[in-house]
Amino acid sequence: MFESTSVGLDVHARSVAACALDSETGEIIRQTLAPDGVTAWLEQLPGTYEAGPTGFWLARTLAAAGIDCQVAAPSRLLRAPGDRIKTDKRDALSLARMLRLGEIVSVRVPTPGQEAARDLSRAHAVAVKDLTHARQRINAMLLRQGIVYPEDSHWTREHTAWLGRQRFEQPAAQAVFVSQLEAELLAVQRRKSLDKLVARRHQGEYDVGIQSCSVGRGKIFGHQDEGACPSLECPERGRPAVGHDQGADVEDVGRAFGHVATQTVQHLGDGRAGFRQWHARQSCPR
Fold first, then answer.
1. Could you tell me which residue, 270 or 115, shows the higher pLDDT?
2. Domain CATH number, residue 80
3. 95, 209, 228, 264: which has the fewest Cβ within 10 Å?
4. What is this structure's pTM?
5. Cα 20 to the center of its chain, rounded Å
């Protein structure tokens, strides 16, 4: 029975709708489980569930118990155009059928460290967006009152001091403006704190760089230490790429691409501005 049975799981925060399908007999077994009871119920049956807000903890738990569990990509699931009835039991049965047919396109299950890095990246993006919105609200309120900062540079120390000197006739407007300034200050502190966390986490990763990533005509060539790595100059218009007019060996061209890729990784740690300046210098003239 185990070889012919596949299980679909519809996972929620407090419950899991499970459906076991035996392809030989057509028998369907449905069960509503607690999240911590899925491992014991599955035993050694292969299962699958749809990736979603519940994350990947269940997949890692089942993998640790030696149970094969695939996390299905939601955008790649087969759905009938006229099937508009959506329930937990029907979703679990549909997943079990697709698993049995081999139609599940699974996503890669990240490690706990990788998932934590994703959370940190998302939190940093949200902090940047919140800061932008807070400053937009301040600018919009000043614009409604006909108040314009006389200088070109904004959100500097001088601009912040100028904002603190602004007064409104209506007490309610003044209270709202003060609360917006406080929200902007908190958003700045939050973004700076997350900037430090991101920099601290990725400092070691960016310092490593790439030792060998040269690619040429479907073969990967390691970086050779003997001899300097040839530079990859941008060809002029109407001129063939590096070494092609001289019949250069494919490995030489591959090492040149590897040299540029190594420089790219080394410049990533300098921030977006430095990378863009470096990329502009490497770009071909138009």
1. 115
2. 3.30.420.40
3. 228
4. 0.64
5. 33
